[in-house]
Amino acid sequence: MSESEGVLESSYVPYDSPFQYAEYNFEHTALELARSQWPNYDDQHYLRGCKWSPDGTCLLTVVRGAGMHVMELPSDLYSGDCVQTSRPIVPLMPAVSVPEGGLIYDYCWYPGMNSGNPATCCWLSSGHGGPIHLWDAFSGDLRCTYRGYNNQDEVEAAMTVCFSADGQNLFCGYKKNVKIFSTGRPGREYVEFPCSHQVSCLVASQAQPGVVAIGTYKNTIELVSQSDGSFRHLCKLNGHKGGITTMAFSLDGFRLYSGARKDKDIICWDLRVPGRPMFCVPREVNTNQKINIDLSLDGKWLVSGGTDGKVQVWNVSEQTYPSVHMQMGLHSDCCNGVSLHPSRPILATASGQHHSMDPLHHTRNSMQYENALSMWWVGPQQEDPDLLSAIIKAATHS
């Protein structure tokens, strides 16, 4: 396949959702809908987060040493206001798998992804020692590559990648700069924005086109505005104890949420009055692993995983200093990925982490760890009347 074949056109393709707007109900325990499990080999196939596609039809995850996988949303979950508690857990099977061998640093969906338009169905990934890849979400084929080079004219791996809000550009974070590629022009053509520290996380604002938050491993966040192919510095945010690993803009663009490694605080920044945190909420993060956060499209619910396997939920629209609205122990190992479905009350989670070798057995096979991708219903639930009557009948006869 040539570099230009199958590449998206530069014009943004808006997504017309076939779903209703999501209404999350974090008042009951999450009901597990579907699950996929990876075995614990010597090289530990733990997951590295998960992300719903913008149209909500499928879920993308990366498994260390086992490539990238796209899971489709079960067909019975496309409609309906509630789910019966007796619904069986459906095994998730990859619809598309890409056996990428090296370590994947970061990945993201094309923001205009719409399953009704195959040209828009793709995602980006960046891995160790290689260029940035654009993958076809229907076939798993490689569409094209974007190559960044260092001062020695060697291909350099991007630590983090994201699309601009309109999908026309790629922002890619490197050791000393952010490189901006045009989505419709793969190859090695790009412009650079110098950074004083290695870039660890990037996120683009949907409400403020061109505004990008750049997180670094030096605990800082820099807000910049892109115009005419270059970046203009807006402000710098300081407050985290570790390197920035996850960020999320609110849909109105007024707030930025950020989390860092070995840092138990998620900080909310009010970008109308930058420089001072609006509030902080706690979570359990005691390793360097990337523990993702996510924000519902209406800006009401903030969710985060934790190294303790728990998912915490905050109603960030209620008050200035929100307390934990709900805490769910969904996994027995580290919950590193959380993703809220854009239009259905479904939460996706990913679990797993690196475990050191057992010093007694000199192997990792003697211990079992959870490496799972799960979908959870966080909307209204209904008891199955037939099951309930059967339970009552059995109790009466006993």
UniProtKB/TrEMBL annotation:
Any one Gene Ontology MF annotation carried by this entry is: RNA binding
Task: Show me the WD repeat boundaries.
Answer: 293-324
Asked if the record carries the keyword Lyase, the reply is: no
Family matches, as Pfam families: WD40 (PF00400)
Gene3D superfamilies associated with the record: YVTN repeat-like/Quinoprotein amine dehydrogenase
Gene Ontology terms: cellular component: Cajal body
- Residue ranges annotated as transmembrane are none
The answer to whether UniProt assigns keyword Repeat to this entry is yes
Domain of life (superkingdom):
Eukaryota
Q: What keywords does the record list, in alphabetical order?
A: Repeat, WD repeat
GO BP annotations, alphabetical order: Cajal body organization
Q: Family, per the entry?
A: Belongs to the TCAB1 family.
In its UniProt entry, what is this protein called?
WD repeat-containing protein 79
Species source reads: Phaedon cochleariae (Mustard beetle)
